[in-house]
């Protein structure tokens, strides 16, 4: 049940009737007609822009359209008033029975209330985290992991067929550095002093790998040249790092459907096949690029390179795919990887990158556009930096990692639920401050606590109902007399519940799961306000002494709140609190 869609349907029917009566010309498009919450709740329950968007194509005054439309809408039992405001906006007020019907729908559908079919089973690939397998995940990866995972859940909830994917960057020089770093820890395990030269990975996380290498090889590799152990240790260390990364992700509640190895693209013809596809489209050529911005001509050595004509698909400049020595640039395997995604039949692709990948957006979009002939959209979401604070000071780096704070550091401090929710309290492209003290505070300023407390309060109502002998199971609450829910504060909560299906579709359409966290905070606020009013006005309390029927109707409202909070937290990957201590 999407009440906003239903009322929009009512508006569209009224507009069609106006056309049939000659009050509006034929041939108008109603695509931009919207029904949404008014900016000021005092103006009504819903507002429509119908008159404003139709005035120009209809060659009429907006207010003239609005006046007739208001009369049509007022004839419907669901509409108690339709008032024209300003130049032609139309504010609607709905009957209490409409909001009571929302509660019935929530109780009937449970956490499926708000679940949408807007995705129509569209196959979407969401790639996120995709960290180099050279060490444990850091706090920046944590934000990307939470954002990507919540986005994937949001899209699945809105009717998409979602694949969660991790791209293992195991084809570049960094894995050679990992192997050399692991070799020094192997030497250390054999009683020698490790030589952690500049450029190697210094973290203690490699010590267990060194010990595992000793267990497997003894001291047989100590005196052998690098050429004899590099590839073996590269594979060994990469596998060990991926085991560590998988464990870190599991601790955060993230499970991938696919782990795709970059290394699988090399020497298999897959890079060549992807580039041949672009060649066949006339998009690969030999040429010389202009000097990069900021480079003086005398500092720039022009040389002929193999280039992808990415400017034909929206990029600023064409991009090299092969170096002058004949080896691939970093861009070439990325093209091949996305070619593989397109070939797997995905209808849409989403990549979640860190803030440092901003310069990669246009070229990657151009590549996917070219590979799919513009049929497969690619949305790239950048997650900005996270600043960690504790005791009013920046949180120190992790000794275990060597030079950064790990995902495990964060999860071990506050738990996965708090970590996930806090990471979604800002839009992905906005910097985020993560204060270990504040995220554990029990106050309204802490959105994690505020939302969980609302859910826990509902659970306490259900426990108190059981103690009082009041049946408050879902089947019983579905049959409660919801007509008793008529106080303005109660209807405010019901109205917020009505927004949930619309919010889900907007968040999914824009790929913005933070909207779910924001909505839950607002819903919790309305519920807490009702609860607090009940402290002074006994008729608003959820359990009414001696009146089982009224109690059940009010408990039904509270239960509906917990259902929607559970659904929203489920999308965010957070477990609803049953009680707060």
Write the layout of secondary structure elements.
Layout: H1 3-20, E1 35-36, E2 46-48, H2 50-58, H3 62-74, E3 79-85, E4 89-94, H4 96-109, E5 123-127, H5 139-157, E6 161-168, H6 174-189, H7 207-217, H8 226-251, E7 258-261, H9 270-280, E8 284-287, E9 305-308, E10 319-322, H10 331-343, E11 348-354, H11 361-371, E12 378-383, E13 386-390, E14 393-394, H12 407-414, H13 416-423, E15 432-435, H14 447-467, H15 474-478, H16 488-498, H17 500-510, H18 514-536, H19 548-572
Parallel strand pairs: 5-6, 5-11, 6-7, 11-12, 13-15
Antiparallel strand pairs: 1-2, 2-4, 3-4, 8-9, 9-10, 13-14
What would you say this structure looks like, in words?
It is a single chain. By secondary structure, this protein is an alpha/beta fold. Helix content is 47%, strand content 12%. The chain contains 19 helices and 15 strands. The protein has helices at residues 3-20, 50-58, 62-74, 96-109, 139-157, 174-189, 207-217, 226-251, 270-280, 331-343, 361-371, 407-414, 416-423, 447-467, 474-478, 488-498, 500-510, 514-536, 548-572; strands at residues 35-36, 46-48, 79-85, 89-94, 123-127, 161-168, 258-261, 284-287, 305-308, 319-322, 348-354, 378-383, 386-390, 393-394, 432-435. It has a 5-stranded parallel beta sheet, with helices on both faces. Strands 1-2-4-3 form a 4-stranded antiparallel beta sheet. It is globular and about 85 Å long. The mean pLDDT is 94. One of its GO terms (cellular component) is cytoplasm. Pfam families: Arg_tRNA_synt_N, DALR_1, tRNA-synt_1d.
């Amino acid at each position: 049940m999407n009440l906003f869609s239903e009322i929009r349907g009512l508006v569209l029917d009224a507009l069609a009737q106006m056309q049939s009566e000659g009050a509006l010309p034929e041939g108008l498009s109603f695509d931009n007609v919207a029904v949404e919450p008014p900016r000021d709740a005092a103006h009504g329950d819903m507002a429509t822009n119908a008159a404003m968007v139709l005035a120009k194509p209809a060659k009429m005054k907006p207010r003239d359209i609005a006046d007739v439309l208001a009369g049509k809408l007022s004839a419907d039992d669901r509409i108690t008033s339709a008032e024209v405001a300003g130049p032609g906006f139309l504010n609607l007020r709905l009957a209490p029975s409409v909001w009571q019907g929302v509660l019935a729908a929530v109780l009937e559908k449970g956490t499926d209330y708000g679940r949408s079919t807007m995705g129509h089973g569209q196959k979407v690939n969401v790639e996120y985290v995709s960290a180099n397998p050279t060490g444990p995940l850091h706090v920046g990866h944590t934000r990307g992991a939470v954002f990507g995972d919540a986005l994937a859940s949001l899209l699945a909830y809105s009717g998409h067929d979602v694949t969660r994917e991790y791209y293992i960057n195991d084809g570049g020089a960094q894995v050679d550095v990992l192997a050399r770093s692991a070799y020094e820890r192997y030497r250390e395990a054999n009683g020698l002093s490790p030589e952690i030269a500049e450029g190697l990975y210094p973290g203690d996380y490699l010590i267990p790998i060194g010990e595992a290498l000793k267990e497997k090889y003894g001291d047989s590799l100590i005196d052998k040249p690098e050429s004899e152990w590099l590839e073996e240790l590269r594979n060994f260390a990469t596998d060990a790092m991926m085991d560590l990364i998988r464990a870190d992700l599991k601790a955060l509640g993230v499970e991938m459907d696919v782990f795709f190895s970059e290394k699988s693209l090399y020497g298999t013809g897959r890079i060549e096949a992807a580039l041949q596809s672009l060649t066949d489209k006339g998009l690969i050529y030999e040429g010389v690029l202009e000097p990069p911005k900021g480079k003086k001509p005398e500092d720039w050595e022009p040389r002929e390179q193999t280039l992808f004509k990415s400017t034909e698909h929206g990029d600023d400049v064409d991009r090299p795919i092969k170096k002058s020595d004949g080896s691939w640039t970093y861009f070439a395997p990325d093209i091949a990887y996305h070619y593989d995604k397109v070939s797997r039949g995905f209808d849409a692709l989403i990549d979640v990158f860190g803030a440092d990948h901003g310069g990669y957006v246009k070229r990657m979009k151009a590549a996917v556009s070219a590979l799919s002939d513009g049929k497969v959209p690619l949305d790239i979401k950048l997650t900005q930096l996270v600043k960690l604070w504790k005791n009013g000071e920046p949180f120190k780096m992790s000794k275990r990692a060597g030079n950064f704070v790990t995902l495990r550091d964060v999860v071990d401090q506050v738990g996965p639920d708090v970590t996930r929710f806090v990471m979604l309290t800002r839009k992905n492209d906005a910097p985020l401050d993560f204060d270990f003290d504040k995220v554990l505070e029990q106050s309204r300023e802490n959105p994690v606590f505020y939302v969980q407390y609302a859910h826990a309060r509902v659970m306490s109502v259900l426990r108190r109902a059981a103690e009082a002998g009041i049946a408050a199971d879902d089947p019983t609450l579905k049959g409660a007399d919801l007509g008793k829910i008529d106080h303005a504060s109660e209807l405010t909560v019901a109205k917020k519940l009505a927004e949930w299906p619309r919010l889900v579709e907007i968040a999914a359409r824009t790929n913005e799961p933070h909207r779910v966290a924001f909505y839950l905070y607002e819903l919790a606020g309305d519920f807490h306000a009702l609860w607090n009013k009940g402290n002074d006005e006994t008729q608003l309390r959820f359990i009414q002494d001696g009146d089982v029927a009224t109690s059940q109707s009010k408990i039904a409202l509270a239960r509906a709140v917990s259902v929607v909070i559970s659904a929203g937290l489920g999308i965010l990957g957070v477990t609803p609190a049953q009680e707060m201590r």
